[in-house]
Amino acid sequence: MRKLFVTGIGTDVGKTVVSAVVTEALSADYWKPVQSGDLDNSDTDKVAALISNDRTKFWPEAYRLPLPLSPHASAASVGVAIRLDEIKLPPVTNDLLVIEGAGGLFVPLNERQTVADLVDQLDCEVLIVSRSYLGSINHTMLTVAALKARKCPILGLVFCGESTPSSESWIRDNCGLKVLFSVPWTDDVNRRWVRDVASSVRTALN
């Protein structure tokens, strides 16, 4: 089974939109192991609303935490401690699984382990989502460096949102990774838009 872990250079950089595009492009299954906050409209719900194909299966979260905080803090608020050994890959029958992380690589899941440790445990290829803002070059390069230091296989980089060519070209020239595609800026992310973008990037993911 091919496992693609979608991580971001920070919070709110477009991981969920990119996860939907990749899931649709590959007709993959989708799994968000840890959901922190927004339980009435979780990332799984959001991706499910954007998928058109009839092959994707959505697997339940290992942890559903009530507050929009770092997972370790949201878990503590309800007397729970996240245990990585309790986060098991779902019994997928599809050959492809898209796994969406929570925030960036070093978001804490408990008192000592982070999302990066979960990536190690699940033994995934990683897809990095970058978005342009002041500081995004630094955050992107730190994410790349951290994954390389841990010897995690990196599929490549995706730019999401409004383009800043000067930032993107610097990252492209210096990160040592393939930039797989860019997800354009839109205020209207819907099922048709995701399907169209997925169709245009499918080749880059195979």
Distance from N terminus to C terminus (CA atoms, Å) equals 14 Å
Helical percentage = 25-40%
Number of extended strands: 9
Q: DSSP helix count?
A: 7
CATH topology title: Rossmann fold
Q: Please give the CATH class.
A: Alpha Beta
Mean pLDDT: 96
Query: What does the main sheet amount to?
Result: 7 strands, parallel
Task: Supply the CATH architecture.
Answer: 3-Layer(aba) Sandwich
The CATH superfamily is known as P-loop containing nucleotide triphosphate hydrolases
| Approximate shape | globular
Helix/strand/pairing category = alpha/beta
**Residue ranges: pLDDT <50 for 5 or more in a row?**
none
Characterization of the model:
α5 links the parallel β7 and β8. The chain has helices spanning 15-26, 43-48, 71-77, 115-122, 136-149, 165-174, 191-205; strands at 2-8, 29-31, 34-36, 58-59, 63-65, 96-104, 125-130, 154-160, 179-183. Helices cover 35% and strands 22% of the residues. The chain has one domain (2-205): P-loop containing nucleotide triphosphate hydrolases (Rossmann fold, 3-Layer(aba) Sandwich), CATH 3.40.50.300. The strands form 2 sheets. The chain has a 7-stranded parallel beta sheet, sandwiched between helices.
Secondary structure blueprint with pairings:
Layout: E1 2-8, H1 15-26, E2 29-31, E3 34-36, H2 43-48, E4 58-59, E5 63-65, H3 71-77, E6 96-104, H4 115-122, E7 125-130, H5 136-149, E8 154-160, H6 165-174, E9 179-183, H7 191-205
Parallel strand pairs: 1-6, 1-7, 2-4, 2-6, 3-5, 7-8, 8-9
Q: What would the keywords be for this entry?
A:
206 residues, alpha/beta, Rossmann fold, seven-stranded parallel beta sheet, two-stranded parallel sheet
